[in-house]
Amino acid sequence: MLRRRARELRAAGRDVIELSSGDLDFPTPDHVIEAAHRAAQRGETRYTNVDGTVELKDAVRETFRRQHGLAYERNEIIICNGSTQALANALLATLRDGDEVIVPAPYWAPYLAQVRLADGTPVLVPCPQNNAFKLNPEDLRAAITARTRWVVINNPVNPSGAVYTSAELSAIAAVLLDHPDAWVLADGLYEHIVLNGSSARTIAAVEPRLKDRTLTVSGVAKTYAMMGWRVGYAAGPAPLIDAMSNIQSQTTSGASSISQAAALAALTGPQDLIAERAAILARRRDTFVASLNRCPGLSCPYPDGTFYALVSCAGLIGAKTPAGSLIETDREFAGYLLEAVDVAVVAGADCGVSPYFRASFAVPAERLAEAAARIERACLALSGK
Ligand SMILES: Cc1ncc(COP(=O)(O)O)c(C=O)c1O
Predict the structure, then answer these.
(1) Does residue 312 have its Cβ closer than 6 Å to ligand 1?
(2) Residue 164: how many CA atoms within 13 Å on its side-chain side?
């Protein structure tokens, strides 16, 4: 709804600042674009293996080894059309009617839709701000049933920017070790967007006894600003990868040959830009979150990872807009920001957390400063808080 309205306003000539997207404003690196161009000229324009080119699979294996100390064989890796497809393949390949998938909330909304599409039942476990939006192991234990098929562990977390420490992942793993039938869907798409100088671990590396029932998912989208190239990958037990590949064969036949050549260049080329870009995002976060915290009625913790701020608007629920409407929900607050000051954000209700909104800071610094000023103006214009 809000997305459509933002498009309509833009089409009507309004200068909408888009803080609701999962895109980064950085360009895909030149050497990656050049590699894609060369691949096309070399004639790499045919179907590849359904589960990806051997070269890219080997680069992914090397990436998992270097980054997490995890060793996988070729038949334990699949390349997909974005990590979105890797996740969908896994759920479609494994869920039977009514199987449960535990999803910590706040969450990335497509987890829920994908589980339902595969005839499964999402089971939400709230992760409140007073636990830094992280999954409490005892809450996880209480949510697991005989029907639990998967537990989603997204680290760093979209939308809160929380980053689990090794100790926190170990405590979650300890619960999972008591439940051998529950598998782990470890989504590390933002693993390189860590803003506090540390790095994000993945659960199969922290607890190797879980490796044979964990699917570790990642991709090039956020690490190399390659959202539109649509390449993601996953590593896990060979029979699961094989089942995912069968689904992929019948649905998309695999990722684009040119995009796979580009992803190969990204994974095997210079990696310095990862830290450089994380440093830029950290500076933007610092300025943006400080500005949001100056807005009356808003409060926002500093995220350790991703490029999202998850902002509480609890202090503005019950306020009145200058036009006289009452703001009762975060959706209404997000709608007000869009209508009143042309800033698009994601309502917390769409990520399983209310009353909050998610605002991206992967936009140029001047636009971000302008957005923060507009949000402040909108908050100041509310009455009766
Ligand atoms: C947590 C999370 N997982 C997976 C994805 C899917 O990304 P892609 O399909 O571009 O690899 C996203 C995209 O924003 C995301 O936020």
Answers:
(1) no
(2) 27
Output the CA 189–ligand 1 centroid distance in Å. Answer: 6
Contacts of 83 (CB under 8 A, 6+ apart): 187, 189, 217, 218, 219, 221, 232, 233, 234
> What element of type H or E holds 267?
helix 257-268
- Asked whether 98 and 120 are in contact (CB, 8 A), the reply is yes
> Tokens representing 118?
């595969």
C-alpha distance across the termini of the chain, in Å:
26
Structure tokens at 90: 């896994």
Q: Say what the pTM is.
A: 0.97
Q: What letter does residue 160 receive in the DSSP assignment?
A: T
Neighbours of 207 (CB within 10 A): 18
Q: Give the Cα separation of 345 and 17 in Å (integer).
A: 9
Confidence of residue 199 (pLDDT cuts 50, 70, 90): confident
Distance 50 CA to ligand 1 centre (A): 21
Instruction: Let me know how many helices (H) and strands (E) the chain has, helices first.
Output: 13, 12
